[in-house]
Amino acid sequence: MSATLAALVNGHPASAITIHDRGFLYGDGVFRTLRVSECEPLWWTDQIEKLEADAARLAIPVPTRSAWERDIADALARSPSECVLRLVLTRGEGQRGYRVPARPSPTRVVTVGPLPEALDQVTRHGARLRVCALRLAQQPSLAGVKHLNRIENVLARMEWNDPQTHEGLLLDASDRVISGVSSNLFIVRRGEVITPGLSRCGVAGVARDRLMRCAQDLKIPVRVADIDLADVTSAEEVMLTNSLIKVWRVERLGGRSWSRAVLSDQLRERLDD
Amino acid sequence: MSATLAALVNGHPASAITIHDRGFLYGDGVFRTLRVSECEPLWWTDQIEKLEADAARLAIPVPTRSAWERDIADALARSPSECVLRLVLTRGEGQRGYRVPARPSPTRVVTVGPLPEALDQVTRHGARLRVCALRLAQQPSLAGVKHLNRIENVLARMEWNDPQTHEGLLLDASDRVISGVSSNLFIVRRGEVITPGLSRCGVAGVARDRLMRCAQDLKIPVRVADIDLADVTSAEEVMLTNSLIKVWRVERLGGRSWSRAVLSDQLRERLDD
To answer: Pick from A7, A141, A149: which is nearest to B27 by CB?
Structure first.
């Protein structure tokens, strides 16, 4: 069923893990999704730093970077030059029960899959958004972290089947707009680029961070702020970012559509450099 | 490392699952922990009904009861008469991405492990509680469900190492007391048994439900209500329930200790019937 091109578990070709892995028992781990372009994982340093920072938030010891790099070289040697790399780090095997092992032996999983087909088409024409009914829970202890507890995203993604809808917009219980289901969000208002704060919920993606830096490089004012749905629908431009799509301009949300995308185009070009 | 006595995946003896199982990818599944006594899973009908109800909340199709029963009979045939049974149901294998498969083929995992050693001792002497710093996030879409997204419980359980502390008390972001890390909570106030509502967060355990029914049978007034920490420390009795411990009376929380446990004893006896 799965179109996996290569898979390693703790450095060895494998496509299974023990049912006692805490990643399976409790979602006790973190992960990253990377775009591979011309055989190179995009934004590698940012990605591994983010994985390590997320692991630290859960107190999961991190493998050496050379261990990851060996795995990735091995996996990519058997993969096409354009593909998707997924890195998973769990707390490793454990007994039943929430208590963590005194000396955890973390599990690292590296898989390679195909690049989704429609990416470039949406990049050209813009993404169609919808607002999800599910509201994100506020958990400052986990906010920003890309951990393996993702049922909220799964439930939100179950809200639509229409292939013409490319992404769902997630709000929190206080009706603040937080992100897309699989992406971060930016709006442009009076020439300023704004992205929601992620101290209560949401995932702080690497592409979000890079887009903010690109804006600074281009002297475009950029800031983090709470926004609501009216801020999005009244925005001059709306953008989505993640490591696979890089930047999508939003073309439609409910009754509102956008055609101009001056800053989105500028930022995309810069991000592609 | 793991003291598993028996394990089946989809009916076959196995201790591994594919890394593409959505239980591992996203914690996209539900589980139950059952006490086995004299070779019989305790409270079986309640347990399987709860598993099915939780799966329905996540729109995961459920296997037939006879499939579970076959697995369990198989696993228990090779296990001691007193043990712990764990049932896991995930949405099964999936491609990368949150979108659920159109026709999911769920994974069921049955494992048997040893009964924890200290249970009876704590039952006799009472449990020592501490208050966790972590606050549970409020997510009505998942509240009550025993799903595989359990990092909150893991983080809460990391707050203490002292083996003399038996359980941690979890509050939500609004300082309402919700439950223990691995148990539900009851307090006695003016002869009335009260347990926190679980419509915003927490797991509604089978033992909680049974204890409420026992109280009704014994004509002890019982109700669900919001309570805070002062309600707990000022209570006449405090109890913890789950399927392994059944009922523990709480003996100490911070500076407060309890010696009397009239209703706790009555309810435990009834529950043991």
So the answer is: A149
Q: How far is B121 from chain A (nearest CA, A)?
A: 19
Q: With an 8 Å Cβ cutoff, are B182 and A97 in contact?
A: yes
Q: Encode pLDDT of A27-59 as tens digits.
A: 999 999 999 999 999 999 999 999 999 999 999
ipTM at complex level: 0.96
Predicted TM-score (pTM) above 0.90: yes
Q: Which of residues 143-162 of B touch A (CB under 8 A)?
A: 147-158
The interaxial angle of helices B206-217 and B262-272, nearest 10 deg, is 110
The b-or-e profile of B222-238 (16+ CB within 10 A means b, else e) is: beeeebeeebbeebbbb
Is A195 strand, coil or helix? Answer: strand
DSSP string, A100-168: PPSS---EEEEEEEPPPTTHHHHHHH-EEEEEEEEEE---TTTTB--BS--HHHHHHHTT---TT--EE
How far apart, in whole angstroms, are the C-alpha atoms of residue B3 and residue A96? Answer: 9
Residues of chain A with C-beta less than 8 angstroms from the C-beta of B35? none
Q: Which of B17, B28, B154 sits opposite A16 (nearest CB)?
A: B17
Alpha-carbon A177 to chain mean position: 17
For testing contact with chain B, the best of A2, A5, A21, A24 (most B CBs within 10 A):
A24
Per-residue pLDDT tens digits for B188-215: 999 999 999 999 999 999 999 999 999 9
Measure the CA–CA gap between A138 and B189, rounded to whole angstroms: 31
Judge contact between B152 and B202, C-beta under 8 A. no
Q: For residue B219, how many other CB atoms are within 10 A of its CB?
A: 7
- Residues listed for chain B: 273
Tokens of A251: 């073309």
DSSP 3-state of A41: strand
Cβ B67 vs Cβ B11: under 8 Å:
yes
Return d(Cα B241, Cα A227) in angstroms, integer.
42
- Chain B residues within an 8 Å CB radius of A99: 157-158
Flag whether residue A163 sits within 8 Å of chain B, measured between CB atoms: no
